[in-house]
Design goal:
About 55% of the residues lie in helices and about 20% in strands. The protein contains two helices and five strands, in the order H-E-E-E-E-E-H. The relative contact order is 0.16.
């Protein structure tokens, strides 16, 4: 008994091979964009986590007293700069300016952060801030990478469509006279 006939593949046009190549390149670029977003996100998270740990070691929370009334100012948001007083570890009363949650009245107690030398500073970075900045940065990079890859894909496949149309037109010019019976018999 004879072996079954071998199935032959349909002939592939140049445009088919170029479309396959473009698809592979686009897939590779998507993977590169994903990898870049992951690497950048992990790097940002590592750096900000280290910064948050350093700030937490170098800053001390203190209780300060508001030295002026702090009204609610809708345009300024919830945190308003205000003068405050606090007593340093050396027992000396100090005065400075920090952001407090409005509204506050003279004499209200608020939390503040100071360095070892007694300067007022913002609170150390919180874990939520680190996570937010990490996700925002990686997400933005991923979005920009996706837009770039999408634009390249659109251009590549528009070029493939033009090439495919030109190939079909050339093939039709060869086949059409025979198919419609207008071929010269002569």
């Amino acid at each position: 008994m004879a072996p079954p006939p071998r199935r032959s593949r349909l002939p592939r046009r140049r445009s088919d091979r170029i479309a396959d190549l473009a698809a592979w390149v686009i897939c590779a670029l998507v993977l590169v964009a994903l990898g870049a977003a992951l690497v950048v996100g992990l790097g940002i998270h590592r750096d900000l986590s280290a910064r948050a740990a350093t700030e937490a070691r170098e800053r001390t929370p203190v209780t300060a007293v508001v030295a002026e009334d702090v009204p609610v100012v809708p345009e300024a948001g919830n945190r308003i700069p205000a003068d405050v007083r606090w007593t340093g570890p050396d027992g000396v009363e100090r005065v400075g300016r920090t952001e407090v949650a409005a509204p506050k009245h003279v004499g209200d107690e608020v939390g503040a952060w100071v360095t070892d030398d007694g300067r007022l500073v913002r609170a150390p970075l919180a874990a939520q801030e680190v996570t937010f900045v990490t996700l925002t940065s990686a997400g933005t990079l991923l979005l920009l990478g996706g837009l770039a890859v999408g634009g390249l894909a659109k251009l590549a496949f528009a070029g493939v469509a033009r090439l495919r149309a030109a190939e079909w037109e050339r093939e039709w010019a060869d086949v059409e006279p025979r198919w419609t019976g207008r071929a010269s018999t002569g």
